[in-house]
Structure formats: C-alpha cells, structure tokens
Specification:
- This protein is of the alpha/beta class.
- It folds into 2 domains: 4-132, Rossmann fold; 142-288, Rossmann fold.
- It is built from 9 helices and 10 strands.
- It has a 10-stranded mixed sheet with strand order 3-2-1-4-5-10-9-6-7-8, with helices on both faces.
- Helix 3 crosses helix 4 (115-124).
- It is elongated and about 65 Å long.
- 38% of the residues are buried.
C-alpha cells in the first residue's frame, strides 16, 4: 500500500493528467493527498499574493468538480521557492511515499516541471517519483520493470508490487551491445553483441533475482500469485530504446526503474537511462530511490 501522495501542479493541462493519476492512486490505496503549487521566482510580494490566489482558485475549482468522497484527506500547499527543494521539503513534512509530476515540455522560460526538477527529485528526493504522461489508463494493470540485477532494482520491484499489486508484470533485463566509456578515457571499446551463453546466463540470473526479491518481500501464497502474473525477458541493445520498445509491445501503463542517485555522470549507465526515461517517457515512469 502507498501512504501519502504529493502531487505538484503548475496549473497546466499536463498537470491535470497528473492530478487525475494521483487521485486514482489515492482511491486505490486510501492515501492522503497533498496538492502543491510552487511559485518560482516571484517579482514582488504583490506578485506572490496574486499568483497564490490564482493557484488556490484553480485547485479548488478542480476539487469542486470531484465527488464529495474524493475530496477527503486532501491538503493544498502553495509556497515560494525552488521547485525541487520545496517539493522535497513538503514530501518530508507530510511523510509522503510518492511525488507525482506531469511530464514536462520544452517550452523555454521557467517551468515548474522542467527536466532538472524531475532529475533532482529522482536523484536526491526522499521518496519515489512518478512522472505522468498524457496517456491515461484507468488503472495500472500492465507494468514493465526495468531490472539491472542491482540493489536499486530490488527497491523498484518492491515499490511496484505495493503500487499495483494486482497488475501483470514484465521484468526486462537489457544487455548493452556497446560498453560504456572508460572512466579515464573517452575511447570506446568495439561494439559486440552478447552471445547465446551470455544471454542464457542472464536469463537464469534474472529468474534467480526475481525469486529472491519476491521471497524476501511477499508471503509464499502471494509469491505464487505474483509469479503467475509475471513474465521475464532478456534482450540486448540500447537500454532506453529496448525499454521503450518493450513498453509499447506489452501496452504498459507504467515503467518502473530504480535510480542510483547519480544521474548525469557519464560512467553511470542506469543513471543515464533513467535520466532519458524521465525526460522522454514512453508511458508513465516510476523512479524509485534506494534510500
């Protein structure tokens, strides 16, 4: 189950999709919901007052369109500051398990949900981050789990099971065909595709990883149920491209990844993939920290 949820809105159309997704999760998990609007770089105290009133009016108007039962356990927070730090602070204060953002658009100027805010929250936030696209399935019934067999992936799998326990799961492990750049050099080693034995070994490792993760996270009767709804696959290629292709192939409503908290470094392969997925998501993306 998911506890409190923080949804960040910049009052745009894409934020409406994030609000609807947060409300869906609130219903499913009986969670508390905090709706936050951050006033970034105000020009004056009068500007803060004007923008604060406009934000409260817009959010309350949306709430009034909901059935009375959906309005329970919802708080509105309008503050000033840097979006990344304010959202992290509010998530901590309200003991949130999840921050929900709308997928950003490159449109220039100061944008509440710009990529740097998403990346910063995924890197240093104190809870999981859900990036919502304009696609709006009624429920997360098909999940894709990006698994690199690391500790970070274990946390991502556990969070996925909590978020959508009744979903069908596909776990995918991608073997890159080209190694990353050397730490001390920009030279690349020659590209080589994994061979049959390597792929077979990766499949066995993935199966063992999932069995161990589920065994440590779920009671035996639940493990059997989840295993019956889970498919595992191993492929090779560019991780971002393969994850996007698999998400489209299975019709995933949500792609779940673990993050190391070191995105942007050239020698952190998963970080680079996570960064790309947050900025160009093929569907909703859940980035899970390991702390």
């Amino acid at each position: 189950m998911i506890g409190n949820i923080l949804i960040a809105t910049d009052l745009s159309e894409r934020s409406e999709a994030a609000l609807e997704r947060a409300l869906m999760l609130k219903r499913q998990h009986a969670s508390g919901l905090v709706i936050a609007h951050i006033i970034d770089q105000p020009k004056s105290s009068l500007d803060v007052e004007r923008r604060s009133k406009a934000a409260h009016k817009a959010i309350n108007s949306w709430l009034l369109s909901l059935p009375p039962a959906d309005r329970a356990d919802i708080a509105i927070k309008v503050t000033t500051g840097t979006p990344q730090w304010e959202l992290g602070r509010l998530a901590h204060i309200h003991n949130c398990d999840l921050i929900v953002l709308g997928a950003h658009q490159y449109r220039g100027g100061h944008d509440l949900l710009i990529g740097s805010t998403m990346e910063g929250l995924a890197r240093s936030g104190n809870c999981a981050l859900l990036v919502v696209t304009g696609k709006r399935p009624d429920a997360y019934d098909k999940l894709l789990l990006g698994i690199d067999l690391s500790l970070y992936a274990r946390f991502a799998v556990r969070m996925a099971m909590s978020l959508a326990p009744q979903a069908d799961f596909t776990g995918i492990h991608v073997l890159p065909t080209t190694p990353g750049p050397d730490i001390d050099s920009v030279e690349m080693e020659p590209a080589s595709a994994p061979q049959g034995e390597e792929i077979a070994a990766a499949r066995a490792a993935l199966a063992d990883f999932m069995a161990d993760t589920l065994g440590k996270s779920l009671p035996p009767e639940v493990q059997a149920d989840v295993t019956g709804r889970m498919a595992l696959t191993v492929c090779s290629g560019d991780p971002y491209a393969q994850l996007c292709a698999e998400a489209g192939e299975i019709g995933a409503g949500l792609l779940v990844i673990g993050t190391r908290g070191r995105m942007g470094l050239p020698h952190t392969r998963l970080g680079t993939t996570a960064e790309k997925l947050l900025n160009e998501p093929p569907c909703d993306v859940l980035a899970v920290n390991s702390w």
